[in-house]
Design brief:
By secondary structure, this protein is mainly α. Helices cover 87% and strands 0% of the residues. It has seven helices and no strands. The chain is flat, with a radius of gyration of 39 Å. The termini are far apart.
């Protein structure tokens, strides 16, 4: 009887433990990178478009120019994180400026600086804008790299000169001590001989 009771308890224990701790496999949704790029570009563009709209309504050419300059800065920031987002951003800002070209021209008037800022953004393909900024960033990085290499070489040369100077000073000091020791030994020998 005990054997049957133990067998029934063992089966019950096994059945209870096999029912718990079942984990369902986690299924991940595939990431749509195109949608993410479009969303990020839309968010960034909406902020800029809002600022542009505000300046168009205020009819302030200098502030409009300042917003257009921030577009260049924003494109440079986006290029660092994702050039595709930068292209989408430029395209959206270009579309807004083209749709509101009459308002922009009315505000810009004879202001050549603002007109140049508007044309720099609207008259070039988004890919070209991004590529142009990438080249500027690349040439600036190349210049910085060359300057860093030159500075490092100067530091190495200075360190070598310092080490060489210290070695020469140590060598001269050692020679002087050796000569003094020889002179002292000679003096002692003379005294011992009574000379």
């Amino acid at each position: 009887m005990k054997k049957i009771l133990l067998a029934v308890m063992a089966v019950a224990a096994i059945s209870f433990t096999s029912c718990g701790n079942k984990t369902q496999p986690v299924t991940e949704e595939p990431v749509d990178s195109v949608a993410i790029i479009a969303q990020q570009a839309e968010e960034e563009a909406q902020a800029t478009i809002s600022a542009l709209t505000e300046q168009l309504e205020a009819q302030d050419a200098s502030k409009l120019q300042a917003v257009l300059e921030t577009v260049k800065v924003k494109v440079a920031e986006l290029i660092k994180s994702n050039p595709e987002v930068a292209k989408e951003y430029v395209a959206k800002v270009q579309n807004f400026l083209k749709e509101n070209a009459d308002k922009v021209k009315a505000i810009v008037g004879d202001n050549a600086a603002v007109a140049a800022a508007v044309s720099a953004i609207t008259e070039v393909e988004p890919q070209s804008v991004v590529n142009g900024l990438l080249e500027q960033v690349g040439s600036a990085a190349e210049g910085a790299k060359d300057a860093a290499v030159d500075a490092a070489n100067e530091q190495i040369d200075a360190a070598k000169a310092a080490v060489e100077q210290k070695a020469n000073e140590a060598k001269d000091a050692a020679k002087q001590k050796a000569n003094e020791a020889i002179d002292n030994a000679a003096q002692d020998a003379k005294k011992a001989l009574g000379i």
